[in-house]
Design goal:
Length: 170
C-alpha cells in the first residue's frame, strides 16, 4: 500500500445563479501563474468566467483493497487552504457602495450588518461582489502579479475604524 500524498488544487469560483459555480484543477508546479493560466480555460454555465480561486491542499491516496476481491476509492481529505485569489477586480469600501447605491441599499446594508466594510467587485465576467478579507489577494488576471492585498495596512486601518464606528468586534 502506498502512502497518501499531498496534492495542490486550484478551486475556481464563477458567478452563478444563486451560488458560485465551482471547478477544480490539479496544479503541477503549484504556482499562481499556473492557476491563473488554467482559469482562462474555464467557462461555466451561461459563459460565466472565474472571478477567483482558492489554493487547496488535499491528502490523496490510491484505491485500497476492499477485502472482497476489488478495490475501494479513498476520499481525499482537505488539509489546507489559502486565502482567496481574485482575478482582477475593483476594491470598494462601504462609503463607495453608499455613494453608488444609497445607504439603505441591500449592498450597503449587507456590508454594515455583516461587518464587512471592504469588498471586491470582479471586472472579468458577470458582475459579482465579494468580501475582501485580510488573507485575500487581487491578482492581474493575465500575469498573476499581485495588484492589491486584503492585509494592506490602509485597509486594515479602515476596517478597524469601521468596526469601531459600527460598534462591532474586530
Amino acid at each position: 500500500m502506498t502512502q497518501p500524498k499531498k496534492k495542490l488544487f486550484a478551486k475556481y469560483f464563477s458567478p452563478g445563479t444563486l451560488f458560485a459555480e465551482t471547478s477544480e484543477r490539479a496544479l503541477e508546479d503549484g504556482s499562481l501563474e499556473e492557476a491563473v493560466k488554467l482559469a482562462a480555460e474555464i467557462s461555466e454555465r451561461h459563459g460565466a468566467l472565474p472571478y477567483a480561486f482558492d489554493l487547496v491542499t488535499y491528502l490523496v491516496a490510491e484505491p485500497v483493497d476492499d477485502g472482497q476481491g476489488g478495490t475501494m476509492n479513498v476520499p481525499r481529505k482537505e488539509i489546507g487552504r489559502d486565502g482567496r485569489y481574485f482575478l482582477g477586480g475593483e476594491i470598494i469600501r462601504y462609503e463607495e457602495a453608499v455613494a453608488r447605491e444609497g445607504e439603505r441599499s441591500v449592498w450597503a446594508s449587507n456590508m454594515m450588518c455583516n461587518g464587512d466594510p471592504v469588498c471586491v467587485q470582479n471586472t472579468n465576467s458577470y458582475k459579482s461582489t465579494h468580501i475582501l478579507r485580510e488573507q485575500d489577494v487581487i491578482l492581474d488576471p493575465v500575469t498573476a502579479v499581485v495588484l492589491s492585498r486584503g492585509d494592506d495596512p490602509e485597509l486594515v486601518k479602515y476596517r478597524a475604524e469601521k468596526f469601531a464606528e459600527w460598534k462591532r468586534p474586530a
